[in-house]
Amino acid sequence: VPFYSELCKQMNAGDNCKTLVGYSAVYKMCFGMACFFFFFFILTIRINNSTGCRAAIHNGFWLLKFVLLVGCCTGAFFIPQEETFLEVWRYIGAFGGFIFLLIQLMLLVEFAHRWNINWSSGVEYNRLWYAALTLVILILFSIAVGAVIFMGVYYTHPEACLLNKIFLGINSSLCFIVSMLAISPYIQKLQPKSGLLQPGVISVYVMYLTFSAFSSKPKEMITVDGINQTVCVFPFDSGSESDKKIVTSLGAVILFACIIYSCLTSTTKRSSAALRVYRNSEPETERARCCFCFGDDTEDYDEEKTTSGQSVVYDEQEGTIYGYSYFHFVFFLGSLYVMMTVTNWFHYDDHKIEKLLDGSWSVFWIKMASCWVCLFIYMMTLIAPMMCPKRFEA
C-alpha cells in the first residue's frame, strides 16, 4: 500500500498500524459486535408479541441499527488500558465461545435425530427411503472409519505422539459404543426410530474435531540419525499449513450450516405449534422429504386463510414464533466464538498473528473436550427414556 507507514503515523496508529491489525483488532471488533447484540438481548427480554415498541425496534430501524453496530466496533478501538482490557476480555470470550460450542453440539444432535425420524417415516410407504438411509449410513461410517485410519497412519508415530494414540483410540471406541447402543434391543424398544444414522453423523463430527485437535496441537520433534524431524503432521503440502486451512474451512461451513439450520427450523409450523402459537392445531404427521429442514407447509390452517382463500402472513400478534432475546443472545455468543476461533483461543504470543500457526495446547484440550461433550449429549438422548420412562411414556 503506497504511503502506508506515513498514513499510520498520521493516524497515530503506531508502527505499521499495529493498533488496527493483529489479534487486538479482532478482540476490539468482536467486542463491539458482542456489545451490540448484548444490548438488544437486554432490550428484547420478555417480549411476547410484535405489537409493542420494543418488538418494533427488533423488527425494523435497520439503518439506525447498522450505524449503531459500526459505532460500537469503532468505539472499541478507543478503550483505555488496552492490555488490561484484552486480558479480561479473552477470558470472557473463552467462556462465551465454549457455551456457543455447546449450542452448536446440541443443534448437531437434534439435526441427526430429526433427519433419522423424517427419513425413517418414509420407509413405511416407500422402500426407496430405506435404500437412501442405508446409502447415507454407509457413506457416513466410511468417512468416519477412513478418518480413523488416516489419523492412525499420519498423526501417530511409534516413538512419539502418545496423546494422539490415546485419544484416537478413546474417541473411536466411544463412537463404536454409541453406535452399538443406538441399535441395542432395549433402546430400540423405547425408541423405535433410533438407528445408525444418528451415530453416523455424530461419529463424522467427532472425527472432524479429533483431526482439528491434532492439527492444533504444538508440533512434536524426534531425532533420527542426528537429524531433528517433525512428526505427526499433515502429510500433504504440510509446509503451507494445509491441515489448518482444512479445519478452518470445515469449521466455517459447520458454523454457518448450524445457523442456517436453526433459522429454517425456527419458522416451521411444527416449531410454531410447539411454542403454542397454534393452540388449537393437531400435531403434524411426519412426512419424509429430502429437504426436511424446511417446514412442511402442505397442511391447511384456518387461521392462515381468509374466506376468499388468500393467504395471510402470520404477524406474531398473539405470540412470537421465536425468542427475540434468545436470538440476540446466541449472536452475542457467536461473536465471542468467532473472536476466539480467529485468534486461536488463547494463543497470541508477541501480538503477531503468524504465531497462530505454531499450535496451542489450549485449543487441543478445548476441542478434545468438545468431542466428549458431543458424545455425552447424544448418549443422554439415548438413555434418557431408560432413566425417566414414565415421563417419556406420557
From TrEMBL:
Q: Is the keyword Transmembrane in the record?
A: yes
- Which reactions fall under this protein's catalytic activity? a 1,2-diacyl-sn-glycero-3-phosphoethanolamine(in) = a 1,2-diacyl-sn-glycero-3-phosphoethanolamine(out); a 1,2-diacyl-sn-glycero-3-phospho-L-serine(in) = a 1,2-diacyl-sn-glycero-3-phospho-L-serine(out); a 1,2-diacyl-sn-glycero-3-phosphocholine(in) = a 1,2-diacyl-sn-glycero-3-phosphocholine(out)
Location of this chain's protein in the cell: Cell membrane
Pfam families (alphabetical):
Serinc (PF03348)
Entry's transmembrane regions:
25-48, 60-79, 91-109, 129-154, 166-184, 196-214, 246-264, 326-346, 366-388
> Which membrane topology describes this protein?
Multi-pass membrane protein
Which residues does UniProt call coiled coil? none
InterPro entries according to UniProt: TDE1/TMS
Question: What keyword terms does UniProt attach to this protein?
Answer: Antiviral defense, Cell membrane, Glycoprotein, Immunity, Innate immunity, Lipid biosynthesis, Lipid metabolism, Membrane, Phospholipid biosynthesis, Phospholipid metabolism, Transmembrane, Transmembrane helix
Q: Which family does it belong to?
A: Belongs to the TDE1 family.
Protein name as annotated:
Serine incorporator 5
Protein species of origin: Goodea atripinnis
Gene field: SERINC5
